Amino acid sequence: MFDGLITGVLARVIADSVKVEKLTEIRLRVGRRLLLMTTSKNEPRIYPRLAGGAYIVTKEDIDGIILRATNLSPYSVSDEMIKGYVPSKRLRIGVGGEGVSDRGRLINLKNVSYLTIRVPHQIYTAADAFLQEIYDKDTLAVKNTLIISPPSGGKTTALRELARIISANKNVVLIDERYELACVSNGVPSLDIGDAEVISGVPKTVAYENCIRAMNPDVLITDELFRDDEISAVCDIIRCGVNVIASVHGDSVAAIENSVYKKLTDVFDVAVVLEKHPVGSVKEILRL
Fold first, then answer.
1. pTM above the 0.90 mark?
2. Which residues are within 8 A (CB) of 105 and not within 5 positions of it... i.e. 6 or more apart?
3. Is the dihedral angle over the CA atoms 258, 150, 177, 181 positive or is it negative?
4. Sequence-separated (6 or more) residues with CB below 8 Å from residue 118
5. 223-237 pLDDT, tens digit each
6. Is the distance from CB of 268 to CB of 238 less than 8 angstroms?
7. Which of 63, 108, 246, 277 gives 100 a disulfide partner, CB atoms 3.0 to 4.6 angstroms apart?
């Protein structure tokens, strides 16, 4: 299961509990029940059972996943682990444990006891409800667009589909800092992003500058703007004449306007707000 990342009894328990196409997250906490998150309205949270009781996650479960995800070399991804994740082919693994800091700076993560494995899905209809609002297939015009939703609301899936569609006629570059959009493994995307180019594993602000200078994009697609420097950099990119499609966390345009993201509403053309239930459904589309 999952390219050999999850094996043995744990893999069997998951397979017996939920169909893979409905699985969105696997949450493992040492000494606590295994939790599966799904797209099902009736059963969004599943606690798998084994031999009459709940499956209790062990430290061996977590250590084994990390070893397999890093090809037996956790130190090779220490930079990513400090940022809270480990990339593994099609999957992104969020990690939690004890932080080691030096002068207020996190320098290491030890005793990892929590994993959140997010399972990406290729949904070729993910942008259908709002595509014509932001992309004209006749004139090839692209509007600067913000995709807004709460966590796990379908932002990444929608961005991936937009990259696939728009790259058929435009030079599209994906900035995929955390390996979620294209799920690059050994330099090759694991998911269908069309003819888009990808910059993975690079801090957004560094990738933005290098992209504009060297790759001549018509459209830049990036996920989860968070820090003020990322927001300012995206605003500068739009002023350079490059179209941008980006995502931010939120549940409405009003929430964005009353936060550090306010400056985005001055340069973006359209905001698409997605809802978490059902995942990826459109709540509203607003001209900014």
1. no
2. none
3. negative
4. 24, 25, 91, 92, 93, 94, 180
5. 999 889 999 999 999
6. yes
7. 108
